[in-house]
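Field reference: sequence -> structure
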Amino acid sequence: MGKDKHGKRPARQQDPGKFDFFKLGTPFAILSVVVSLVALADIFREGFDYGIDFAGGTEVQVQFKDEVTSGKVRDFTKTIGFENASVQAIGEENEFLIRMDMIQGKDDKETQEKVNAVIQKITSGLASSFENQGAAIRRVDSVGPQIGEELKRNGVLAVFYSLLMILIYIGLRFDYKYAPGAVFCLFHDSVIVMGIFAIFDFEGNVQTLAAVLTIIGYSLNDTIVTFDRIRENVKVYRDQGFKWICNRSINDVLSRTLLTSITTLIAVSAMYFIAGGVIKDFAFTLGLGVIIGTYSSIYVATPLVIFADRFTESGKKELESAPA
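Structure field:
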């Protein structure tokens, strides 16, 4: 490198990173807000299609050796007196889920007796009506309405306390400039995933809730890695603006982020295409969360940190010194 006319070597230009992630920051911010509002609106308007874990009821999983259509199974449920029973085909191996609403008795004992009678009636009916097709009962689940409400309430509390503890952890680990961005990022990811379930009437059950909590942990891990690099680069690039530092930090951890996300998606894809039933639902939810979480750690959490920095002393000085 040559010298200037004063005999000094010019300072090497610092590399801001290969990609300018904030070049399209405004369109992505608008997209995130719109999608989140649409998801929230549908959640409050339509609600969720709760499985028996939350809504209560009886669910029977049956598989046939020979080909049987869902129409035949539905006709069978009507014949034995369950007009409102739901029949859902799962997989491609003549396997079905038969779901019936909870039958309420005068007390718990009478309710349990009625549920047992329903299970006995439908299992014996399947064995006799589809004897030639080789009906095999794979699973029978029954959840009372009180237990369903308790599970639903505990699920909401689990998500709330998770976000609260994360807010405290991020505030102590970094500072309160970072905490709101991290928590809003997790809220953003959870709302969009649950909104997709509400819009497309996917079943919400305990496995779905477990996947949402897993998404919160996964997204937080990705966000913390980015925040750690930002905090390190603030000390290294003292002469650069905070926005420049954030963009450089995202570029620094980009390969790690992509490798982690792709590896997780490969494992989740294997679960989705090979497994069935509740494992498939769990894998689908987790896959959505990985994609949305990777996006939000770049275009939701970090921009919110940049916004919060404007209210700090260093951020105010940077704004004052910026050219008009």
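Note: The first helix runs from residue 25 to 46.
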